[in-house]
């Protein structure tokens, strides 16, 4: 039984339709480590014994590096083509298949991405990054049950992964299991108290549940930690607007547009909220205090939730 009170799943509040809310589009970066944290062997780590072999190994290594550069520059179709060629030459390199999966996913080829992650996992069943990123793809494919299976496998390997519990929260949220989602986000934050995406997603869930007042604290803390994020500021604006704090909502929407002047829905929200502003609004709520209170709340959760669960959460 969870130590937290259970919250009934409510219908979406109407305010969410008026503003752009982002959930779980959390940052995914290529990594040069395995799931256990050890350095991944470079593609040319075995010393060739002939000049021809040395030339081939150098070409393959350069090809891998070209793929990484293309990925980091956001040229995902180029990266997909490069890593496709690379795994053709190094089919037994799990990390090559992993990078092909990342590239294909970002290029919009979701089915191909899953297949590449599966090939990586066939070579290394403990590769947590392949499990977690394939779960993200399954969430985009609207298959939360498949995503949960991958996440549970990742948690079984690394039960201290805050990222895994954040994704577990997303999967439960997609399935409409709000109580389980809240518990998962809280555990993610106990494991990493600065996980701004877990804060954002928890705040969004509260908004969806019609509890915008509960959303303010985690979103205020996310903005405090990463004030240049238009997504976090916009979601905070929606929570503030939904609770009648119109002056603070106006400030939040203005902050969104300062960070990203092309954020159209924030501009629409700003125009909607301006006529509602009463300058006395700001005196009713201190966002700094709300953020500090949420940071303290995470520490309290840490006393209630064991660092490592007794068992993997059931689907």
What does this molecule look like?
The protein is mostly helical and 315 residues long. The protein has helices at 51-72, 76-89, 94-106, 110-123, 128-140, 144-157, 162-175, 178-191, 196-208, 212-225, 230-242, 246-259, 264-273, 287-304. Helix 4 runs antiparallel to helix 5, helix 8 (178-191) packs antiparallel against helix 9 and helix 9 (196-208) packs parallel to helix 11. It is globular. Residues 1-18, 32-47 and 310-315 have low confidence and may be disordered.
Number of helices: 14
Helix-strand topology string: HHHHHHHHHHHHHH
Q: What ranges have pLDDT less than 50 throughout 5 or more consecutive residues? A: 1-18, 32-47, 310-315
**How much beta, percentage-wise?**
under 5%
Task: Write down the oligomeric state.
Answer: single chain
Largest sheet: none
Total count of strands: 0
Percent range for helical residues? 55-70%
Measured distance between first and last alpha carbons:
15 Å
Task: Determine Rg (CA atoms, Å).
Answer: 22 Å
The dominant shape is: globular
Judged by helices, strands and strand pairing, the structural class is mainly alpha
- What is the residue-averaged pLDDT? 85
């Amino acid at each position: 039984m969870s130590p937290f009170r259970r919250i009934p799943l409510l219908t979406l509040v109407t305010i969410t339709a008026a503003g752009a809310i982002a959930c779980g589009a959390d940052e995914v970066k290529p990594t040069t480590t395995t799931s256990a944290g050890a350095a991944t062997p470079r593609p040319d780590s075995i010393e060739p014994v002939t000049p021809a072999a040395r030339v081939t190994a150098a070409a393959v290594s350069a090809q891998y590096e070209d793929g990484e550069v293309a990925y980091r520059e956001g040229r995902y179709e180029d990266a997909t083509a490069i890593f496709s060629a690379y795994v053709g030459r190094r089919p037994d390199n799990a990390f090559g298949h992993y990078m092909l999966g990342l590239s294909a996913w970002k290029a919009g080829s979701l089915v191909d991405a899953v297949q590449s992650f599966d090939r990586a996992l066939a070579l290394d069943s403990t590769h947590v990054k392949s499990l977690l990123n394939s779960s993200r793809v399954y969430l985009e494919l609207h298959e939360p049950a498949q995503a949960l299976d991958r996440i549970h496998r990742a948690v079984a390997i690394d039960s201290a992964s805050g990222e895994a519990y954040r994704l577990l929260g997303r999967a439960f949220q997609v399935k409409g299991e709000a109580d389980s989602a809240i518990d998962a986000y809280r555990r993610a934050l106990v494991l990493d108290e600065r996980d701004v995406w877990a804060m954002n997603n928890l705040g969004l869930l509260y908004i969806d549940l019609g509890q915008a007042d509960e959303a303010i604290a985690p979103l205020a803390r996310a903005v405090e930690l990463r004030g240049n994020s238009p997504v976090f500021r916009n979601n905070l604006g929606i929570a503030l607007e939904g609770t009648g704090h119109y002056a603070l909502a106006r400030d939040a929407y203005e902050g969104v547009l300062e960070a990203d002047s092309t954020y159209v829905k924030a501009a629409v929200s700003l125009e909607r909220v301006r006529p509602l502003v009463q300058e006395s609004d700001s005196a009713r709520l201190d966002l700094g205090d709300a953020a500090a209170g949420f940071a303290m709340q995470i520490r309290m959760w840490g006393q209630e939730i064991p660092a490592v669960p007794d068992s993997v959460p059931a689907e």
